[in-house]
Amino acid sequence: MPSHDTIIQGTDTDAAVSRMSAVDLGYLEDQYSRFFVQAPAMGAAVRRLPIINRGTYTRTTALDRLIGSFLSATDGQERQIVSLGAGTDTRAFRLFNKESQAKLIYHEVDFPTVIARKYHLVRSIPALRAVIQRPGSIDRTHTWRDEDLPDGSQYWCYGLDLRDLSKPDVTPLAGLRTDVPTLLLSECCLCYLEVTEASKVIKYFTDRISCLSSVIYEAVHPNDPFGKQMVSNLAARRIRMPTLEEYTDPSTQEARLRDAGFDSVHSLTIERIWEDWISPDEKERVDNLEGLDEVEEWSLLADHYSVSWDDVGSETDYDASFMVDSDYEPSRDSDSNGLVEQEVEEYIRASGMLKEELLDDVDDGEEKSSNADTRGPGAVFQISDFGLKAVADKTT
Q1: Domain assignment of residue 330, given as a range
Q2: Whole-number Å distance between alpha carbons of 94 and 130
Q3: InterPro entries attached here (predicted)?
Q4: I want to staple 269 with a disulfide (CB 3.0 to 4.6 A). Which of 40, 154, 189, 375 is the partner?
Q5: What's the rounded Cα separation, in Å, for the pair 224 and 2?
């Protein structure tokens, strides 16, 4: 029987397939995504349900907007992004492919086997090697890097269990700078750790970097009928998300960041991000790709994920208020860290649950927050990650 860590690592393959689905159908543009989808996973399974593709698109747009705003605010400076549990994420390749991204140090941290797999892909695929031209070799600390990217940029990959960061004898992250503006990114990563472990990971960086901002994408609302089904489905796959039990809604996610030492914090659900951050023209373009009949299901799913972020790290010398209302236009590139989204449809078929029954359950359950400001980005993509298989789909 595979270990819990192995199960979590395996979800990255599903993320890559979902990313490919959104790219193939025109939701996103990502010339690198196909290199991270294994051949056996290709085929009919690549096409996800429209509700999943919209989720992938919306989360990606939200994170691209926040990350793009950070980069715009630090333009001309040395700056760095630290991506926790990066897996097959292609964001580093996409950013380094843009001429405007100078002086960027990009760090990825994941299990040694995941980092080694990415290393071998980069070395063997010309399109990836064109971006990371000198990947070197994997050293004894399971680290590999290219410190000689154009325009003073660097790329570092660390093979490390994040829980080891709190150990007194942990090997420091060799390329990590403590004197430059830094964005800490967790896309459905810290949620797999115990609450104290996740807090210690964040503390590792807040203790070392004064100019620090963060973006965290996780599930929320586990206690309403849909959320309970979500947690049940997750447990059936031997997956538990401890932070979901502690940070149950956007307001507690905000409190989490404040407790970690961040000041001006925000949290929105994916539903709110779609409504407020996507322009009418872009909504029309996305709607025309496939159409979406399951509007109520979309709202239900999107309300169960959030993106949380802070405006400014302590003692920062740059203005990060851009993170709230920037005019930055995100690309249609795609992200990683999703789980087996096609299971949404499979679960529905197996359970025979009807959309109306599920929505009635939600209406009869705990009253949802009426505070519109607590609803927003970052929620629908990793549906199987969180066991979000309870949304009924009337299509085949």
Answers
A1: 4-374
A2: 12
A3: LCMT1, Ppm1/Ppm2/Tcmp, SAM-dependent_MTases_sf
A4: 375
A5: 31
**Which residues have CB under 8 Å from 203's CB, separation 6+?**
166, 260
Assess whether pLDDT exceeds 50 at residue 374. Answer: no
Kindly indicate the confidence band of residue 11, based on its pLDDT and cuts at 50, 70 and 90.
low
Is the CB of residue 215 less than 8 Å from the CB of residue 183? yes
pTM: 0.81
pLDDT at 357 over 80: no
What tokens were used for 191? 């949620």
Tell me what the mean pLDDT of segment 203-212 comes to: 96
Q: Is residue 394 part of a domain?
A: no
Quote the CA–CA distance of 233 and 217 in Å, as a whole number: 20
Comparing 330 with 309, which gets the higher pLDDT?
309
292 found inside a domain: yes
CATH at residue 125: 3.40.50.150
What would the pLDDT profile of 305-323 be if each residue is shown by its tens digit?
999 999 743 333 444 444 5
Task: Reply yes or no on whether the pLDDT at 346 is more than 70.
Answer: no
Tens digits of residue pLDDT in 169-185 = 999 999 999 999 999 99
d(CA 269, CA 267): 7
How many domains, in total, are found in the chain? 1
- Is residue 117 domain-resident? yes
